[in-house]
Structure formats: structure tokens, C-alpha cells
Amino acid sequence: MVENLLTAAQAGDRRALGRLLSKLDVGSLDVASLNLQPTAKCIGITGPPGVGKSTLTNSLITKLLAMGKSVAVLAVDPSSPITGGALLGDRIRMQAHAINPKVFIRSVASGGHLGGLAKYATAQVDLLRSLDFDYVLIETVGVGQNEVEIAGVAQQVVVVVAPGMGDSIQAAKAGVFEIADIFVMNKSDKDGAQSAVAELRAMLELLPGAKQVPIISVVATVGEGVAELIEAIEAA
């Protein structure tokens, strides 16, 4: 049964893929038993609440499709306190791409799991990376200092911040900032964007073992700066 589902998913059957992801999501399937060979590039998108992670993910999908790439997205949503399921806010923002055959979008509930991801997200990412996708994007829930689990799953971590959210930068810098491979200053058309970039650079210089991390200014709502972000991702 599982072998048939995997064969179908490898042939592009999205319903079979969905069933496999559901089995992984509830822990009824051991990903090691699938003998997967992940090859797709995995990019983590994280940051504090309200900085536009979903909008950025949507813009990345648009640009990658224009480049002829195929994309899978695993969006980790907060859990409903009533049903325990995902609230699906992230997926709604990407709805324009839902019927594209080169795109697969899956929302999963965090289920109260700490770290910014869901309990079985790593297994689900391994499955997605083993199929016919060029990129797998993982969008975490809104995170603070300690939600750094994404660093152990993604090959590269994009940390998203925004001007006018100094408190969120302060909240994130003790943990999330250390795992960033690339920073995105989203909403960079807003007042104070340049000073926010300067503040971010100053913070990074204070971190132990400070490294040069690219900071890309983006306006995700219109796709501005997204091409430069992809260049940074591919160059890293």
C-alpha cells in the first residue's frame, strides 16, 4: 500500500503525495522505511509574526515558476485551540498557485510543538525533497528567540524582518539571528527601512563569531527584490 502510494507520488500523483504526508503527519509511517534520496534544495523562511513570511513565500513561488522551477511548500500554521488543526492562513495567501501543476502546497498544524515547526515536519520535508521538485520551501510559524528547529531541517535559512518592528528584532536576535544564512528586510518601501537595515547590520556585528550575512531589501507584495533574494540563495 505505502509502496504503491510512493510510486504514484514519484510519478506526480498529488493525491498520493497528500496521503503519504498525512501518514507522516500522524506518525503512522516511518520515513526511514521509504528509502528516500532527497535532492531538492530546501529553504527555510522564518521570522517574527507579522513580517510578511507568507507574502514573501508567495512571491518566491511566482519568481521560481517564471524561472521554470517546480516548488513544494510546507507551511506550518498555528494550531486551532478548538480543533487542533491548522488555521490555513498561510495557504490562503498562496491560493493563486494552488492549481499550478508545478506547485504543491501543504499546510500543517504546529500542534503545540516547540521550535517553530510541526512534530513530523522533518520527515515530510524529506519526502518532498525526494520527489519532482526543484525547491522545497518551509515556512515556520511566527517565531521568537528559541524557535530555531528550522536550522536542522533546511539547507539555508532566510530570516524575515520588517521596519518599524524593532521589538521583534530584539526578541529574535538572541536565537533566530544566529541561524540566518540570509536576512530579508521586507516592506522596505516603508519609512525607516534604511535605518532598520543599518540597525540590523549593527546587531549582527555584535554577535559572537559574527559572519557576513546578506541583507536583501524586499517588497514582497509586488515582488521587488525577490530576484536578488533568489540570487543570494543560489550563491550561498
Word description of this protein:
The structure is a single chain. By secondary structure, this protein is an alpha/beta fold. It is built from eight helices and seven strands. The model has no long low-confidence stretch (mean pLDDT 84).
CATH structural class: Alpha Beta
- Number of helical stretches of at least 4 residues: 8
Total domain modules: 1
Distance between the termini: 40 Å
Outline the secondary-structure elements.
Layout: H1 2-10, H2 14-25, E1 41-46, H3 53-66, E2 71-77, H4 89-93, E3 103-109, H5 121-129, E4 135-139, E5 156-161, H6 166-173, E6 182-185, H7 193-206, E7 215-217, H8 226-235
Parallel strand pairs: 1-4, 1-5, 2-3, 2-4, 5-6, 6-7
Helix pairs in contact: 1-2
Question: Which terms would index this structure?
Answer:
236 residues; Rossmann fold; 7-stranded parallel beta sheet; 7 strands; 34% helix
Quick structural overview:
By secondary structure, the chain is an alpha/beta fold. The chain is 34% helix and 16% strand.
